[in-house]
Amino acid sequence: MNRPYLELNGIQKQFGNFTALNHIDLTLNQGELVCFLGPSGCGKTTLLRIIAGLETQTEGSIYQDGRDISHAPIEKRDYGIVFQSYALFPNLTIFQNIAYGLVNLKVPKKKIKQRVTELLETVGLSGSEKKYPAQLSGGQQQRIALARALATSPNLLLLDEPLSALDATVRTHLRQEICSLQKKLGITTIMVTHDQEEALSIADRIVVMNHGKIEQIGTPFEVYSNPVSPFVASFVGRVNQLNATCIDSQKIQLGTQEITIPEMDLTQGESVTAFIRPEDYEIIPEDNIDTSAFTGIVKNIEFLGSHSLITFNSPQNKEPLMLLFSLQENLTHQIAIGKSLQVRFPESKMNIFRSA
After folding, report:
1. What is the CATH number of the domain that holds 244?
2. Residues 321-346 pLDDT 10s
3. What whole-number distance in Å separates Cα of residue 162 and Cα of residue 339?
4. pTM of the predicted model, to two decimals?
5. Which stretches make up the ABC transporter domain (predicted)?
6. Is residue 313 predicted with pLDDT exceeding 50?
7. Edge-first strand listing for the sheet containing 213-218
8. What CA–CA distance (Å, rounded) separates 35 from 33?
9. Residue 14 in contact with residue 20, Cβ under 8 Å?
């Protein structure tokens, strides 16, 4: 059974009159990979820096493996950290970069050599000991930064947007390598990112942040499928926003369709928004007129490789609607710009919130 490893209680951070973090409570389990996800300026990096001791919280406490590190200096905290910029020493060899922390701890030279060799093998860069950072690609440099962070065998790994400077192909490959390595080592890991796909693909749990607060904590599936707020629904992945009106506390009018919803504190005539993913739809054949369906004309087709994102305008909704088609579905329905569509969205896949 997982046990709590890192506990944040009531973390506040003020910069003058600006509240960067507002009462953050969070517990991480031993061996978990947790992603802090949110837009720029939401407080995720500030929170990571407070955990690392690079910033000091205005209020609140931090416990690591049962030990109070709320005001402990950096050298008394047990973690390794990897920054977006790699932060390798350009004048040191790869061996010297990885060994840096071990040398400071006065580890015997024989053990240092053994540890560096082992880490280079782990990150797939054996034989690079004598090279300098400038001789390596961006992806290789980030692997060296990861090896350096792991050199002292920390029990906590902090990753501050470590892949954002890499191109898409390298980023995808390296994030899977980090995930595999993290599982292999069983090291508790926090990754800061603003990339939803990155968080969804590797995290055990996602902490979605906005304006210095935690909006939702959950597994990738929970956050994607059952968002707890309009912000989470619209920020994590693509989503359609359908305008609706309340009939009563358990029923809404969506276009010409009446939909039963879990009971909410809503009044008749109140505006609500139904959020639904572009992959959750049903195409109604043209020869089967359905008065409750959303009708429209395909305006744009965005080819995404294995899928295409279809945009169509419907008089039943203020905003254009999106549908995600596989290549086979494209062929089946003969999707083309100008084609008429009839679409139904399943009630079970909708998340209903009050309109802003």
Report:
1. 2.40.50.100
2. 999 999 898 888 889 999 999 998 88
3. 43
4. 0.90
5. 6-236
6. yes
7. 80-82, 156-160, 188-193, 33-37, 205-210, 213-218
8. 7
9. yes
